[in-house]
Amino acid sequence: MDEQPDTPAQSPRARRRGQGELETQVLAALREAPEPVTAQWVQRRLDGGLAYTTVMTILSRLHTKGAVSRSRSGRSCLWLAAADAAGLAALRMRRVLDTQTDRDAVLASFVSALLPQDEELLRALLDGPAGGDED
To answer: Which residues of 119-134 are buried (b: 16+ CB within 10 A; e: fewer)?
Structure first.
């Protein structure tokens, strides 16, 4: 049998990350940091050998979303998580909602598609003290 060496077309492709997966990984690394850290620190903590520029792009996007904060330290920036994974998901949901012209329809559709236990939880959250009681 004639064996040919693997070529890029024959070798299995690397798994593509899902939308937002890399942001979640970067945010998780920042949440584990003992103090504000550099992008290089984050890069070393992530699997997959990501380029420094990729890490910087993700950090910048997270900063724009309000999920991380940054401060200057000499010529570098120090990064700190401002949200957890749930907070990041909430920010994404809010951004989607903000792009819609008929917010009422979007929210009504969202609520009607919830599982019953999720709808009960949402009702409890809205009825609770943080939900805006008028006392």
So the answer is: eeeeeeeeeeeeeeee
Distances (CA, A) of 30 to 42, 57, 74, 76, 105: 7, 15, 20, 16, 36
pLDDT at 7 over 70: no
The percentage of residues in the chain with a pLDDT greater than 70, rounded to a whole number, is: 81
**Tens digits of residue pLDDT in 30-43:** 999 999 999 999 99
- Model pTM score: 0.62
Output the six-digit token pair for 14: 């690397």
Q: Distances from the Cα of 42 to the Cαs of 34, 65, 104, in angstroms?
A: 12, 18, 40
Take residue 91 and report the two structure tokens written for it. 């920010």
* Crossing angle for the helix pair 85-98 and 21-32, to the nearest 10 degrees: 140
